[in-house]
Design goal:
Radius of gyration: 22 Å
Number of helices: 14
CATH architecture of the largest domain: 3-Layer(aba) Sandwich
Number of domains: 2
CATH topology of the largest domain: Aspartate Aminotransferase, domain 2
Largest sheet: 7 strands, mixed
Strand order of the largest sheet: 2-8-7-6-5-3-4
Structural class: alpha/beta
CATH superfamily of the largest domain: Type I PLP-dependent aspartate aminotransferase-like (Major domain)
Shape: globular
Strand content: 5-15%
Number of strands: 14
Length: about 400
């Protein structure tokens, strides 16, 4: 029986009904500008302040260390560009990885045109950077290390706490250096503690944790100097000018509170669903390669390369049968390019092109997974039968 199954929760999540309920009054009766001093404005300001506390609680930060943004991309841009612009007198070298989100890579590329140098670290077969490579990349000019907490395509967790301790040791020796981490795919899905990580800046996004698109946050450790990217009013402690979107900020705050209260249960539930799914896939589908580190990853992501097929073809086939998944490949000019993230793991082009991401969420059920497992093997068999390359290798 046909049904719709959404397994693309790393791209975006459905909005939790509790989040909708929390934000609705600020779309209707409670419409004040949080910068106004009258009753309506102070009502809005109180809601923003509450959300700031809720976001801070999720990551063990202080409320005044939270800067609201329009999303994860702006948080990444502000974190990286804002930090180096404010502190460029201490150096013009940045260290990041080959598999960062485009919000980081594009910002670094722009900074390279402005005289900064960037080292892009390899990640090897398990999709993780090594602390030894970071140590080897440090120069007298290094001012910032930006390494994501969890990769958006393969879910692999980076050794961010180890990086944070290393950065702190450099500072103890008198070096001016800071550490930013993009936690968009981690916050609200696994425990994220800025004190444990030891980061100076951390990005997160609402629409990855069951809140609307258009709002995110940047954690800025107390005392860190940051040059604003968006100029205007004095909002967000003069770090991000512009009238606050009170309904969206309220939604983010509520989503963070829900995530924090349900974190342990949801983490275990998602891990159980993912592991059961992967176990069955390994049993019934030949030539399936699981990408990334099997142990160090968020519980919501399974990235699998299926030999003999194109990931885009499988995505379309599954979509026709009601199943939404994603692929890291980019379709351009009629040809499918291999996923750069999967290529960075050292995979062959054909396996990189055959990579598909299944990402699980709060509203997925065991019935959803059973439905997918009934359809997936047949879809792959059909695509392989139609593939000349697979037919030749099988023969």
């Amino acid at each position: 029986m046909f049904r719709r199954v959404y397994l693309d929760n790393s791209a975006t999540t459905p909005i939790d009904p509790q989040v909708v309920e929390a934000m609705m009054p600020y779309l209707t009766d409670k419409f004040g500008n949080a910068s106004s001093i009258h009753f309506f404005g102070q009502e809005a300001k109180a809601a923003v302040d509450k959300a700031r506390h809720q976001v801070a609680a999720l990551i063990n930060a202080r409320p005044n260390e939270i800067v609201f943004t329009s999303g994860g991309t702006e948080a990444d841009n502000l974190g990286v560009h804002g930090l180096v612009e404010a502190n460029r007198k201490y150096g013009k070298h940045i260290i990041t990885s080959e598999i960062e989100h485009s919000a980081i890579k594009a910002t670094c590329a722009e900074l390279e045109t402005q005289g900064f140098s960037v080292t892009y670290l390899p990640v090897y077969e398990n999709g993780r950077v090594t602390i030894d490579d970071i140590k080897a990349a440090i120069t007298d000019e290094t001012i910032l290390i930006s390494i994501m907490t969890a990769n958006n395509e393969i879910g692999t967790l980076q050794p961010v706490a180890e990086i944070g301790r290393f950065v702190e040791s450099l500072r103890e020796d008198g070096k001016k250096i800071w550490f930013h981490t993009d936690a968009v795919q981690a916050a609200g899905k696994i425990p994220v503690d800025v004190e444990e990580i030891g980061c100076d800046l951390l990005s997160l996004s609402a629409h990855k944790i069951y809140a609307p698109k258009g709002v995110g946050a940047l954690y800025v450790r107390r005392g860190v100097r940051l040059h604003p990217r968006q100029l205007g009013g004095r909002q967000e402690r003069e770090r991000r000018g512009g009238t606050e979107s009170v309904p969206l900020i309220v939604a983010l705050g509520q989503a963070c509170e829900i995530a924090q209260s349900n974190l342990e249960h949801e983490t275990e539930t998602m891990r159980s669903i993912r592991d059961s799914f992967e176990s069955k896939v390994g049993e019934v589908i030949d030539d399936a390669v699981f990408n990334g580190d099997r142990d160090h990853r968020v519980p919501t992501v399974s990235n699998i390369s299926f030999g003999g097929i194109e990931g885009e073809g499988l995505l379309i086939n599954l979509d026709m049968q009601g199943i939404a998944v994603s692929t890291g490949s980019a379709c351009s000019s009629g040809s499918v390019e291999p996923s750069p993230v999967i290529k960075a793991l050292g995979q062959r082009d054909d396996l990189a092109r055959g990579a598909v991401r299944f990402s699980f969420g709060r509203f997925n059920s065991a019935d959803d997974i059973e439905y997918v497992l009934n359809i997936l093997p047949k879809a792959i068999e059909t695509l392989r039968r139609l593939s000349p390359a697979h037919a030749r290798s099988a023969g």
